[in-house]
Every structure is written in structure tokens, then in C-alpha cells.
Design a protein that fits this description.
This protein is an alpha/beta fold and about 280 residues long. The protein contains eleven helices and five strands; from the N terminus they run ααααβββααααβαβαα.
């Protein structure tokens, strides 16, 4: 039911983009008319952020697809940066935020979780000094994205308390050692009630849990890392995934869920033009 509801919303969103590009005579791909032509991808960015995007050295995933969470992150956070710290204070209900710095496609160069030779990249890091927000944008994601190790190893079908993670065996990856530590952010008894096998095999939990574990591992007395997921309220699949995540946490209030609609409304307090543009593009 949830996936079907989300798929229906995505179909409407694609039609919305198709109509928008048609009205503005923006070249599109013939097979998928909601996707713009390869020379028109800057049309997917607000004019105020295009110079900054041109100077950012990141790898673009799907620059012509308006459903790209990466493009949404660039639009929301570069426009937010122009609004300044008050926007971020409103967005995260944190009046202590000062001199916030935004980084896109942030990679943990310390490889804190020992993820092999290619540590995961993260959509946005908002660095506010002692407080850091590690942010994942989820726009239209609505399918399972499990750990790929499960395709090759029977250990993954065992319960949390007894399985030997193949990633730990091969790379020394710290997912399960952190989960087994008494200070970990998850309640293992709850996880075992939720899942009869590795939680990383279900939905978006592999990525979400890695975010949470990374923030937990990097938090010290000198700095606090907070994991954040931003997604539209109509993405019911992600809503269900977030509820599943929070139900397994000891302190669910330390994990932030922000609806895209609320983020845009927060921006409206500081720049109505930016908020109107984001609403026209992303909210149906």
C-alpha cells in the first residue's frame, strides 16, 4: 500500500515536471519528457545558485532529472545559505547555530566506519562548529536498497545477536561492532523483535543506519553530530522507513526527520521568492 501510494505520487510529479518544461519551452528527452535535455540541466537550478554550483567540484548523479535528490539538496541548501544562519536555526529548531558552513557530497576522509576503500558520501554536511548536521535528502526514493553483501553470504540471514557481518570479516567494517557496543544508539532487543535477520537487508535501513552509526561514532565531548533525513510528506515509503528507524533507537529524539514542506516554509520567513520557486518545482 505504501509503495503504491508513493508510486502514484511520483507519477503525478513526473507529469507536473513534463507540463512545467512544456510551458517554458525547455528541451526534454523524447522517451521521458519530465527529464530535460542534456544542455538544459541548469534550468533545474534556481538562477541564484547556478554560479555556486558551477564552482562546486562534485560528481553529479543525474543532473538532467528533476527528481534528483542531489539537485534538490543544492537548491534548498544553497538558497538557505543565502538566507543565512536564521534559516538554519528555524530549520533545525536550534538557535545556537552560528556561522554555518555547507558542504555537498561530504566524504568522511577518516573512514570512521572502515567502509573499505570507498567510504560513503553524504548529501550535505552543515558544519556549525561544535554542532554538525549530517543530512540525507530523500525526494522520490521508494524501493529497497539493502546491503549487497547479503547476495553472497548466508550470515546475513541470522539474527543480530549471532551473525558475523561479512563486511566486518573482509574490511573490518565497524557497523556491527558499534551495534554490539553497550553505548550504541540502537536497542538491540527491539531490533531483534523487528527483524529476524540483519536490519541492513530491509528497505532504506542500510543507508539510514549507517548515517546514524557514523554520527554516533564521530560524536565526542567536543562536537555533536546529528543525523537528519529530509523528504516530502507525500513520500509515504520514506515515512514508514523513518518510523521503523525511530522505533529501534534508544533516543529517537536525536535523529531528526524534516519534511520538505516544512523546510520550504522555514525559508518563506526569510525569502518568499526562493520559497515560491521551490514550491512550484517540488510540491504538488
Amino acid at each position: 500500500m505504501t509503495i503504491n501510494d508513493t508510486s502514484e505520487w511520483i507519477n503525478k510529479l513526473e507529469f507536473h515536471f513534463t507540463t512545467l518544461w512544456g510551458n517554458r519551452r525547455i528541451p526534454v528527452q523524447s522517451k521521458h519528457p519530465f527529464i530535460v535535455g542534456k544542455d538544459s540541466w541548469m534550468e533545474l537550478l534556481h538562477p541564484a545558485v547556478r554560479p555556486a554550483v558551477a564552482s562546486i567540484h562534485i560528481r553529479f548523479h543525474s543532473p538532467t532529472n528533476p527528481k534528483s535528490s542531489q539537485l534538490l539538496a543544492l537548491n534548498l541548501f544553497l538558497l538557505g545559505q543565502k538566507c543565512g544562519d536564521p534559516f538554519f536555526q528555524q530549520l533545525f529548531s536550534d538557535t545556537s547555530i552560528q556561522n554555518a558552513k555547507v558542504a555537498f557530497e561530504w566524504i568522511d576522509k577518516s573512514n570512521t566506519l572502515r567502509q573499505g576503500g570507498n567510504p560513503s558520501n553524504h548529501d550535505v554536511l552543515l558544519d556549525c562548529g561544535k554542532q554538525k548536521y549530517l543530512i540525507e535528502m530523500k525526494f522520490t526514493e521508494h524501493s529497497d536498497a539493502p546491503c549487497s553483501s547479503s547476495k553472497r553470504n548466508q550470515e546475513c540471514s541470522k539474527r543480530m545477536s549471532v551473525l558475523q557481518c561479512p563486511l566486518e570479516s573482509v574490511y573490518g567494517t565497524l557497523y556491527h561492532p558499534i551495534l554490539r557496543d553497550k553505548t550504541n544508539p540502537y536497542d538491540l532487543a527491539r531490533l531483534e523483535r523487528q527483524y529476524s535477520d540483519c536490519p541492513f537487508l530491509h528497505g532504506e535501513q542500510f543507508q539510514i543506519m549507517r548515517y546514524i552509526l557514523l554520527c554516533h561514532a564521530r560524536t565526542t565531548s567536543a562536537q555533536t553530530w546529528t543525523p537528519v533525513i529530509i523528504f516530502p510528506h507525500k513520500n509515504r515509503f520514506m515515512e514508514e522507513e523513518i518510523e521503523m528507524t525511530k522505533s529501534g533507537l534508544k533516543r529517537p529524539e536525536r535523529f531528526k526527520r524534516v519534511y520538505l514542506e516544512d523546510a520550504i516554509n522555514a525559508m518563506r520567513r526569510f525569502n518568499e521568492v526562493y520559497a515560491a520557486w521551490l514550491t512550484e518545482r517540488y510540491i504538488i
